[in-house]
Amino acid sequence: MVANDTIVALATAPGESAVAVTRLSGPDAISIASARFHGRISPADSASHRILFGSFLGDDGSPLDSVLLSVFRSPRSYTGEDVVEISSHGGTAIPRAIVEALVRAGARAARPGEFTERAFRNGKLDLAQAESVAALIRARSERSLRAVMSALGGSLSRRVAAVDSELVGLLAEVEARIDFPADVGEAIDGVELGRRCSRIAGSVREWVARIPGSRRMQEGVRAALVGRANVGKSSLLNALVGYDRAIVDESPGTTRDTVEESIWIEGVELRIADTAGLRAGLGRVEGLGVERSARAARDCDLAVLVLDRSDGVGDADREAASWVEDRPVVVAWNKADLRVGIAPRPRAPVSSELVVGEVETIAVRPGGAEPLLGALRSALPRVLCEHVGEEVATTSVRQDRLFAEALAALERAETGFSADLSYDLIAVDLADARR
Ligand code: GDP
């Protein structure tokens, strides 16, 4: 279906800003804009990809604002339709007045995502690219932005197409053996086809393995500070967030009033569950804190087990350590300033395979949490699965599910080849994988 109405919406975020962009798309975009614009050249007479300077006119024909108007004629536009973008002054009042005036002139207010939907329908973007637009707008860090930009550029789709064309070749071979079983020398051949199937399954498997990493890159790595009361979790969190504030002041979307604090390490957001926010020692609240700590530990990608360097390891420490289960753990021996003499450090109460870093900190001393920051930095690549190729990052849960389904079908086909099942059955699995 090709939409035949003209839609309008503010393309930039509403609120205080120097400039705002209002976008019109549809068959009447140019005539509607022309009715509200006064300048040396009318949009109706303008070539595509030109910028016109003039006034946007209010209902009574008087200038509402000075604007720059960009004309993109179909099909060379974002949506593939005629598009006009009006750059006006920002703020709330002017952009709203412009959108309302354009609605009165015949445009319809667009639904969220409708421009991108039209771009998709008109073949300007494939579905993976369209989904990347949404992910792009949600992107929380520079690194995730790069991953999403790359998917938006179509690299994900190209990689999928490459795998698909191998699959098409394999399926054709299999189908030929269904249709003309007599013509092909079966025995050796089947083995070779099975190998080809395994190679394809292998590349999809690699992809599926990277999904958690790309998800984390986009949504942030969830970390949790875990430890018994009073080891210094709050103090460490404050110190970590403090560094971050110092480095990236006014970081966007910092979550002061929620149970999460974010720091950015090399473009990756580390979302630290603020289980430390609850003060210990108040009975009920302490219980709550313990429960929240345990829950954060269960949900995290990376745990920071905080222990007290000035004290031994006790039952409460062992209990806290048990919450991290199989997560990678950075061990922070806090209160290193209070350790007596040269008392040797006890063994941390977690399995050593899980430990991705072990440091001593002094949360209450300026710079004293720096070693922890360093340990987190070195642990991140492992948490992100080391080589999350930015070019293959998936950008939606739908894509993740489809990759998993394709892999399952390919694995059935692989089993089919090795069990010498009939080619009819194998062809069904290969076709499923393609779909
Ligand atoms: P939490 O219950 O684990 O969140 O622990 P807090 O951060 O509330 O710290 C408990 C107490 O230990 C507070 O009085 C802190 O000032 C103190 N504290 C935290 N870290 C250190 C440290 O590295 N050295 C010293 N000497 N005191 C610390």
Outline the secondary-structure elements.
Layout: E1 7-10, E2 15-25, H1 29-35, E3 37-39, E4 50-57, E5 63-72, E6 83-91, H2 93-104, E7 108-109, H3 114-121, H4 127-138, H5 142-152, H6 155-179, H7 186-219, E8 221-226, H8 233-247, E9 260-265, E10 268-273, H9 284-299, E11 302-308, H10 315-323, E12 329-334, E13 355-360, H11 370-383, H12 397-418, H13 423-434
Parallel strand pairs: 1-7, 8-10, 8-11, 11-12, 12-13
Antiparallel strand pairs: 1-2, 2-6, 3-4, 4-5, 5-6, 9-10
The structure holds guanosine-5'-diphosphate.
Task: Walk me through this protein's architecture.
The protein is an alpha/beta fold. Helices cover 45% and strands 19% of the residues. It has 13 helices and 13 strands. The strands form two sheets. The chain has a seven-stranded mixed sheet with strand order 3-4-5-6-2-1-7, with helices on one face. Residues 227, 229-235, 276, 280, 334-335, 337-338, 362-364 line the site of guanosine-5'-diphosphate.
